[in-house]
Amino acid sequence: LQGTEAFYSILMAHPKANGFLGASGFAGAIPAAYTQLAKLFFETLQKGRQSKRITKFEYQRPSWTFHAKGLWYYQPYQSLPLLTMIGSPNFGKCQYFDT
Predict the structure, then answer these.
(1) Is the pLDDT of residue 70 over 80?
(2) Transmembrane segments in this chain: where (predicted)?
(3) 3-class SS at 53?
(4) Could you tell me if 7 and 56 are in contact, meaning their C-beta atoms sit under 8 angstroms apart?
(5) Whole-angstrom distance between the N-terminal and C-terminal Cα of the chain?
């Protein structure tokens, strides 16, 4: 956190957009665990006076879930990324219909 002056935007699932919301057993605790980890991370940013460089966004859309992992590196003052890495993408979409 202290070794760079880069700006970051983090997109994560809102707890209501987490596919494990309402799951039974251990899996049901995953949304709360992610929320707690994000809270601790941003408390660390504030203590280190780094919160102006790193912005968090939460995805939430009724009846949708969010799952993505990726990294996009932009050089300073450039509008397009120099490097993109994607893992565990969901390139397809899944729709559930009530009948």
Answers:
(1) no
(2) 20-42
(3) coil
(4) no
(5) 50
Contact 72, 10 (CB under 8 A): no
In tens, the pLDDT along 26-39 reads 888 988 998 899 89
For residue 11, give the amino acid letter.
Answer: L
3-state DSSP assignment of residue 70 = strand
Contact present, 85 and 77 (Cβ < 8 Å): no
Residue 22: what are its φ and ψ, rounded to 5°?
Answer: 85, 0
pTM of the model: 0.62
Average pLDDT of every residue of the chain: 80
Return the ∠ at Cα 43 (arms to 39 and 46), rounded to 5°: 140
